[in-house]
Amino acid sequence: MAQTFDGAQFPDAIRFTLGGSNVATQVVIPQTASKVTVKFSTNAGKIAFEGTDGGAINANFADIVGDAFAELSLSDGIREAKGVGSIFLASATASTVCTCIIEG
User: Fold this and answer.
1) Phi-psi region for residue 101, left (φ > 0), alpha (ψ -120 to 50) or beta?
2) Which of 77, 98, 84 is nearest to 23 (CA)?
3) 29 vs 96: CA distance, rounded Å
4) pLDDT of 32
5) 7 Cβ neighbours under 8 A, 6+ residues apart
6) Which residues 6+ apart lie within 8 Å of 100 measured at CB?
7) What is the pLDDT of residue 57?
8) Which of 4, 46, 99, 101 sits at 20 to 30 Å (Cα–Cα) from 65?
9) Phi, psi torsion values for 55, nearest 5 degrees
10) pTM of the predicted protein model
11) Which residues of 83-100 are buried (b: 16+ CB within 10 A; e: fewer)?
12) What is the distance between the alpha carbons of residues 85 and 91, in angstroms, rounded to a whole number?
């Protein structure tokens, strides 16, 4: 099920549980966000920039190890994300708690 940041404050965090392995959950990022940080608790995860909420994770993904923070810059220097309106996250092996933090 898609998760959405409302962009009303920065920093902001959401925490949710990802379902079975390789099932994508869309996280909607406000255009004013300049950075997103992702952490998968215990199990490894995957991040993609294209996909469908509830579908299989896109074949073009990056692996993120469990219990590590992955920080991605979205800013183009003038407080606008570079066209990144969503990211797609999936657990690599089983149900996993995911934390996403955005900064403006």
Assistant:
1) beta
2) 98
3) 21
4) 83
5) 30, 31, 32, 33
6) 3, 5, 13, 14, 15, 27, 36, 37, 38, 87, 89
7) 95
8) 4
9) -90, -175
10) 0.89
11) eeebbbbbbbeeebebeb
12) 21
Interatomic CA distance for residues 98 and 78, integer angstroms: 29
Length of the chain in terms of residues written: 104
Token pair, residue 58, equals: 């896109």
More confident residue, 31 or 70: 70
Please report which helix (H) or strand (E) contains residue 10, including its range: none
The answer to whether residues 88 and 51 touch, using CB atoms and an 8 Å cutoff, is yes
Token pair for 19:
């379902």
Residue 78 has pLDDT above 60, yes or no: no
User: Residue 83: which residues within 8 A CB-CB, separation 6 or more?
Assistant: none
Can you tell me whether residue 75 is helix, strand or coil?
strand
